[in-house]
Design goal:
The chain has 111 residues and is mainly α. It contains four helices and no strands. The longest helix has 19 residues. It starts with 27 loop residues before the first helix and ends with a helix. 17% of the residues are buried.
């Protein structure tokens, strides 16, 4: 049996609505690995699937924090988990200017 095999592709439309490839968070190879094997990784990590190979068993140990990531699957899964758990900040060039700030600027220019 092949490690991390799944008949379904993996997508996360909530956190990556434009896909893993267009998110800017993953390389092309990492995005491909997530799409092709992410479903199996998710099922293993959540306990919906039991480990069938030594590679999958090591993956579970990495998910539990008992081992360091070594395989591409382990590294990309930890990267994915890190991205979905951190809060994203949006920075814009526009902002709301308070009436008090405008009054202070006008007053300082008049002096």
């Amino acid at each position: 049996m092949n490690s991390f095999s799944s008949s379904k592709q993996f997508f996360d439309d909530v956190n990556f609505p434009r896909g893993f490839q267009r998110s800017g968070d993953f390389t092309i190879g990492e995005a491909k690995l997530l799409i092709e094997q992410g479903r199996a990784m998710q099922e293993l990590a959540s306990g919906l699937r039991e480990a069938m190979t030594e590679q999958e068993q090591h993956f579970l140990m990495v998910c539990r924090g008992e081992a360091q990531p070594a395989s591409p699957q382990e590294k990309v899964w930890l990267k994915y988990q890190g991205r979905i758990s951190q809060r994203r900040h949006m920075h814009t060039m526009c902002g709301v200017v308070s009436k008090q700030a405008v009054t202070e600027v006008v007053a300082s220019e008049e002096d």
